[in-house]
Amino acid sequence: MSRSTPPTTQSADTPPTARHGRLRSNGVWSTVGKIVAGAVAVVFASGTAVAAYAVFDLAATAKPSVTLGNEDVLAGVPDVGAIEGGVNLLVVGSDSRQGQGMAFGDPNEETSVLNDVTMLMHVAEDHSHASVVSFPRDMVVDVPACDDPANPGSQLDELYGVKINSVLSWGGMPCVVKTVEQLTGVTIPFAGTVQFLGVAGLSEAIGGVDVCVAEPIEDEYTGTFLDAGTHTLSGMAALQFLRTRHGVGDGSDLGRISNQQVFLSSLARKMQSEGTYSDPVKLYGIAKAALANMQLSDSLTDPMRLVSIAKALKDTDLSKIAFIQYPTAYEADYSAVVPTESAEVINLALQQDLPVAFDAAANQDASFASAGDPTAAPAEPVEETPTEEAPATEAPATEAPAPTEQALPSDVTGQTAAETRCSAGRSLDDQ
After folding, report:
1. What are the angstrom distances between the C-alpha of 39 and each of 52, 57, 310, 360?
2. Per-residue pLDDT averaged across 18-44, rounded?
3. How many distinct structural domains can be found in the chain?
4. pLDDT at residue 45, rounded to an integer
């Protein structure tokens, strides 16, 4: 038996009323068992004397996990040290007000469950590079048939031409994963969903993030008011910075994604510069915050696996960690966006495990992009040295070498973790 009525797709400022499905989840004691085993391994490996505290502390914070249905691809993956091989992990940010108090509106009136943030992190097989791809919330996608979270054993029909941020309410986190898998052509065995307060908690566990603001940010909707300069944000201040769209760029969700990339690139720099990946205490704190604040797939409920994925980026060159905005164009009435032809270039880079190189003009030409660091020294011009042309000779026919890097088209915006870019603030007068 299947259900085929699609979710209402409309502006994200007026989200549809969504059905609250019951996610298929494992029992709490199954999750606790994994956590106990993982915590013991963590504390013995780090040589600390807080084993008992760590075990019970992590177990007490655990939430029931969610089965994605593709976990078999993880057979044999080790749980100690940096994870071997590549990683595809989907992070879903839910705008659900349930369990969030009244700080974000009345949960009884604002009952939507939209995935307003959908990000895919890909770590290369050899850990030499990584890509974090953000999918705009109003992007139109096709949705494959998914298990119905409200009726175990039954399926939801395929959907065509709906906004991606409606998929969480339609089929839960596993359906969001299947949709992004279908879109990109890669398998995603890891996933997690986080709500507002969870983002605040995770940012506190990290110890705050320094962000650069080029022009003042003024946003009455999220209560975000930041002067130009550098700010260290954690907790609610970090959450509101990540939520603001009226106060940055062109006021659109595309501008908000660019703003989030400013935060995430700074976070990546901090994690490496402060030795977080080699500090078991810091990694333990982050794992604890993730377990307490996120609903994770079964594949992530072991703290050792969380730590091993984090360690995969320990030695990755910051210039090889790319934050990419999935390329889209507005529909005629500006109510939604659709992927451009350049999206297939992103898909192929993910499928072929290639690092990417941004077009230098991409951010300059986009109204929603973040700003360059005003304190950075201008690049020195490179003088070309003339070379003598060698006489032409007929070379033997050979196979073209396999590509080692994917050059991105000029409509693909983003930045690397090595770049310090700044939020392009927007005043109330421009809104």
Report:
1. 9, 9, 16, 45
2. 43
3. 1
4. 40
Task: Write the pLDDT tens digit of every residue in 128-184.
Answer: 999 999 999 999 999 999 999 999 899 999 999 999 999 999 999 999 999 999 999
Using an 8 Å Cβ cutoff, are 9 and 16 in contact?
yes
What was the pLDDT predicted at 113? 84
Element at 264 (helix H, strand E): helix 253-273
Inter-residue contact 303 to 80 (CB < 8 Å): no
* Residues paired with residue 321 on neighbouring β-strands, in sequence order: 130
Neighbouring residues of 49: CB distance < 8 A, sequence distance ≥ 6 = none
Alpha-helix residue ranges (DSSP H) falling in 7-111: 28-46, 51-61
Q: Tell me how far CA of residue 24 lies from CA of 153, 212, 257, 301, 350, in angstroms.
A: 11, 41, 30, 15, 29
- Angstrom distance (rounded) from CA 302 to CA 79: 8
Given strand 130-134, what is the order of strands in its sheet? 294-296, 190-194, 87-94, 115-123, 130-134, 321-325, 414-416
CATH of the domain at 56: 3.40.630.190
* Percentage with pLDDT > 90 across the chain: 52
Output the six-digit token pair for 226: 């930041």
CA 391 centroid distance within chain: 51
Q: What is the pTM of this model?
A: 0.79
What's the token pair of residue 22? Answer: 């019951």
Asked if residue 250 belongs to a domain, the reply is yes
389 part of a folded domain: no
Domain of 338, in residue numbers: 16-376+406-430
What are the helix and strand counts (H, E) for the chain?
Answer: 9, 22
Q: H helices within 9-109, ranges in order?
A: 28-46, 51-61
168 phi and psi, to 5 degrees?
A: -60, -40
Question: Is 319 contained in some domain?
Answer: yes
